[in-house]
Amino acid sequence: MKLCRFNDDRVGRVDGDHVLDVTEALSALPTLRWPVPRGDQLIAHLPEFVAAVQALQNCPRMRLDEVRLLSPVANPTKIIGAPVNYKKHLEESRADQGIHFDRDIKTIDYYGLFLKANSSMVGPSEGVALRFTDRRNDHEIELVAVIGKQADRVSRANALDYVACYTAGLDMTVRGTEARSYRKSIDTYTVIGPWLVTADELPDPSDLDFELTVNGETRQKANTSDLIFDVPRLIEYASSFYTLYPGDLIMTGTPEGVGPVHAGDKINVTIEAIGSMSVDVRNA
Q1: 6 and 138: one domain?
Q2: How many domains does the chain have?
Q3: Which of 11, 251, 246 is nearest to 150 (CA)?
Q4: pTM for the full predicted model
Q5: Which pLDDT tens digit goes with each residue over 37-62?
């Protein structure tokens, strides 16, 4: 099932180029009082929500190009980044002064993971608002795994059992010498969308083609088979350091082809079996 969040926090089921308003199915979620449990409650109760969606009849229908798409996950406890997780991106990072700033670039097993501020997360219709336009602001396309249940020190062998959904991510970054978590946590620098694809419809994330274009020009094009740490290894690695909760986002890393964008550009992100999202770039 493909699920989106749109307009004023409505929930939709994507059907081709239309969306069915299934917000009524949120009644399947428990009523909460403060302090609420950690994690995104729709993701935590996704099976009950999906069952409620399937039971709905005569849902309002509208065209996807007529709605405003928000991030399909509303309340992750953390957004996890995977640095230098494609070999060819390692090579381009070492060759490009605008990326490495005289540092010796290494791979993910050296750096470990990093966290992005939740406040940086937006949906595709909200777009990217560039800050520090005197510096290079780069695009990075990434497959995103959405954790479905609490995970603590899980093994690679059963790691995919903890994935609820997949989606696409645009990890924006300001180039510089500061820590990744600082340069990548600017408001609007984590674009998630266009919707969620439940894991039963995408059982194997290890061989997905994906592409990013800027103003119609291909900048990044690769396959998730090129990952250094694949999705199960990333979940094992992350959960060995901190507990993962429903709705937590694991951004799996970006391939070669990263490059700068400017106000007025249009970024298109496409991932096989998920879909495409179009993101407008503006100055903050």
Answers
A1: no
A2: 2
A3: 246
A4: 0.96
A5: 999 999 999 999 999 999 999 999 99
